[in-house]
Specification:
With 248 residues, the chain is α+β, with helices and mostly antiparallel strands. It is built from six helices and 13 strands. Strands 1, 2, 3, 4, 5, 6, 7, 8, 9, 12 and 13 form an eleven-stranded antiparallel sheet that branches. Strands 10-11 form a two-stranded antiparallel sheet. A hairpin with a 2-residue loop joins β5 and β6. α1 packs antiparallel against α3.
């Protein structure tokens, strides 16, 4: 059954090539699908999956310029529900738009910030998608929306952060460290850093299975695996690339 499902995932990736280059398909799709595949094959129940990217924008002359900048996004994303522009104690401006895709229940969030910078206003854009439910068909339907947003708002090949959370029965006779090792082996990943406590372990690693990575002080890394026990009956599992971007 697992092999049949992986064949289906591979077929979907090939379908993407009709519109996007192989590099784009691998960068944006393969890590998510691979992480899901590894977790499901190890009976880890998916709680949430998410993709996240960010971009430093251009400089604006004034808060009025920021308002016009925001209006451009609102025009391009008319189905989004937008907050009012807020200003924090440091003078930074912020607005957030959210939308849930009715066909797939995938949630989208875009945050647009502006901050004082040398008598002008720097801008920063954050785009997130995710869902508390994983369904391969839904991802196939929604992925074209995701790619379109990336193409429209993040043209310079941004880093895409992928993160999947799940739970596994901790009564199985496997300590956290051994379970983490088995997960790393599934990605053919080499550990580069590790943090270990009694009920928690986090391992940073590098895999050749996708090209996207970040440079630490001494190593490249593009995979993080974190496990935490919960009262002895279950363990939470978080896997992300190139790093985990949520609390774990």
């Amino acid at each position: 059954m697992g092999n049949r499902k992986w064949i289906m995932i591979t077929f979907i990736l090939l379908l993407f090539l009709g519109t996007y280059t192989q590099t784009e398909a691998q960068r944006f799709s393969f890590p998510l699908l691979k992480i899901i595949h590894v977790m499901e094959n190890r009976d880890i129940a998916i709680d949430h999956w998410g993709l996240y990217t960010k971009k430093i924008g251009g400089l604006l002359d004034s808060p009025k310029g920021y308002e016009r900048f925001v209006e451009g996004f609102q025009k391009d994303l008319p189905a989004f529900h937008w907050t009012k522009i807020t200003k924090d104690y440091e003078g930074n401006l912020k607005i957030t738009g959210v939308h849930t895709d009715n066909r797939t229940t995938v949630n989208e969030r875009i945050t647009i910030l502006a901050y004082p910078q040398n008598n002008k206003w720097g801008t920063y854009i954050i785009y997130e998608v995710g869902s508390d439910h994983w369904n391969l068909d839904n991802w196939q339907r929604f992925s074209s929306v995701f790619f379109e947003r990336i193409d429209n708002f993040f043209k310079e090949n941004p880093t895409i952060f992928t993160c999947v959370n799940g739970k596994v029965n901790a009564k199985m006779n496997l300590v956290l460290q051994k379970r983490a090792q088995k997960l790393l082996k599934a990605f053919s990943a080499v550990p580069v850093e590790k943090l270990k406590e009694k009920t928690f372990i986090s391992v940073s690693a590098y895999t050749d299975q996708w090209k996207q990575s970040i440079q630490t002080r001494n190593h490249r890394m593009n995979l993080q695996v974190a496990l935490r026990t919960e009262g002895g009956s279950a363990a939470t599992v978080t896997i992300g690339t190139p790093i985990i971007t949520t609390e774990y």
